[in-house]
């Protein structure tokens, strides 16, 4: 099942802002690798798409998961620092292909 996640936080709860203020160089490959590791998903949640709007501290993600419990665990990182809206969605392009009407 596909889900669309909108995760938001603010400048006060932003991990990047907090790291910069504590003297951590957030441009290092090591820091970037750790902070974006979630994009690779895990054995229960597949990340299909991930888009970030850094100035507004907002992330838009489409994931595939078999059940809500796995998704709930996956989203803890965003719930710990802000809000996280999760909505089930359908793949309109796949549906159009499956119905045989793509390009017609």
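^ Assign residues to that structure.
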């Amino acid at each position: 099942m596909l889900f669309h996640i909108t995760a938001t936080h603010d400048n006060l709860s932003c991990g990047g802002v907090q790291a910069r203020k504590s003297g951590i160089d957030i441009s290092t490959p090591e820091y970037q690798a750790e902070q974006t590791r979630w994009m690779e998903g895990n054995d229960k949640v597949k990340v299909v798409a991930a888009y970030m709007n850094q100035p507004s501290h907002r992330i838009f993600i489409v994931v595939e998961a078999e059940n809500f419990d796995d998704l709930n665990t996956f989203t803890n990182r965003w719930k710990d620092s802000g809000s996280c809206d999760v909505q089930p969605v359908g793949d309109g392009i796949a549906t159009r292909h499956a119905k045989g009407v793509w390009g017609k």
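The two ends are 27 Å apart (CA to CA).
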